[in-house]
């Protein structure tokens, strides 16, 4: 019984001393200061990194999208380093040996090795994506995994472990780098705008093509994204009520879809001005007489 009282006394005795709470408050304040300093340091370093790349771009006329990608990578690395230094410093202030933790990492590594494999795979894949220039921030990409499309949209950021992609419909998709299989980048080479315009089968197709070609001469100067004037490739299909005219145009990288939308809009405006008729639905009326 006396032994139990002695154990309880040794456990609760520090809680009755003012020094215990003073030390606790001091350490909490110290942790908050370290965290605040880390946030400020990261913010300052991020600004310095951005300014350094801006100066480099002005002097060497570098690729802006490539610079954004490298800025994102360097900022990620700096963030991890700063937080590692802060955490190890806080642990040492509490009397926890960082060297001991590192020394025991071999034993812990056996337990978490399989889980760490995924993290290592993500980081290695992230380095390959960046240094092989598979895609950059601002590129329009489609990502497949095991034959299934898992994301399609504009790359927002590339980190060591994951990539963020803004989809056409506005969602933000975060993909672990190691999960990416087939990558299709629509922003490396020039795009192609493909449009199929239906017109009434009663229209003079030669005249329609001439008017379209006359319209397309002005589009290149009006819209920056066209590398060449759109051209009428010819008739793509003939049906009972319509003729489908195929149009194509070379655009700057990643703007094929936008170019197609512009061609449709301008063609529709011209059709209205010139009185070119669009196909009307065919209505069949079956009258059955009763005998």
UniProtKB/TrEMBL annotation:
UniProt KW Chaperone keyword: no
Function: May play a role in resistance to osmotic downshock.
Limits of the Mechanosensitive ion channel transmembrane helices 2/3 domain: 76-117
UniProt-listed InterPro entries: LSM_dom_sf (IPR010920), MS_channel_1st (IPR049142), MscS_beta-dom_sf (IPR023408), MscS_channel_2nd (IPR006685), MscS_channel_C_sf (IPR011066), MscS_channel_TM-2 (IPR011014), YbiO_bact (IPR045276)
Domain Mechanosensitive ion channel MscS stretches: 118-187
Keywords assigned by UniProt, alphabetized: Cell membrane, Membrane, Transmembrane, Transmembrane helix
Name of the featured protein: Mechanosensitive ion channel family protein
Top-rank taxon, per record: Bacteria
């Amino acid at each position: 019984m006396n032994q139990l009282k002695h154990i309880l006394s040794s456990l609760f005795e520090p809680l009755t001393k003012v020094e215990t709470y003073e030390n606790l408050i001091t350490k909490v304040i110290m942790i908050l200061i370290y965290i605040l300093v880390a946030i400020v340091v990261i913010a300052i370093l991020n600004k310095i990194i951005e300014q350094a790349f801006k100066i480099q771009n002005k002097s060497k006329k570098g690729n802006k999208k490539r610079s954004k990608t490298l800025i994102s990578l360097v900022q990620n690395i700096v963030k991890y380093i700063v937080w590692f230094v802060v955490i190890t410093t806080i642990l040492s202030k509490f009397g926890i040996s960082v060297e001991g933790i590192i020394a025991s990492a071999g034993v812990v590594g056996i337990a978490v090795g399989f889980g760490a494999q995924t993290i290592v795979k993500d980081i290695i894949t992230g380095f390959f994506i960046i240094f092989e220039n598979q895609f950059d921030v601002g590129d329009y990409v489609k990502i497949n995994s095991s034959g299934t499309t898992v994301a399609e949209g504009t790359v927002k950021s590339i980190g060591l472990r994951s990539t963020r992609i803004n989809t056409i419909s506005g969602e933000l998709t975060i993909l672990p780098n190691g999960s990416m299989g087939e990558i299709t980048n629509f922003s490396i080479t020039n795009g192609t705008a493909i449009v199929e315009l239906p017109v009434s089968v009663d229209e003079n197709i030669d005249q329609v093509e001439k008017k379209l070609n006359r319209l397309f001469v002005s589009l290149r100067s009006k819209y920056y994204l066209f590398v060449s004037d759109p051209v009428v490739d010819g008739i793509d299909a003939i049906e009972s009520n319509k003729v489908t005219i195929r149009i194509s145009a070379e655009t700057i990288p990643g703007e094929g879809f936008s170019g197609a939308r512009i061609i449709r809009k301008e063609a529709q405006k011209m059709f209205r001005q010139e009185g070119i008729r669009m196909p009307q639905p065919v209505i069949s009326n079956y009258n059955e007489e009763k005998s």
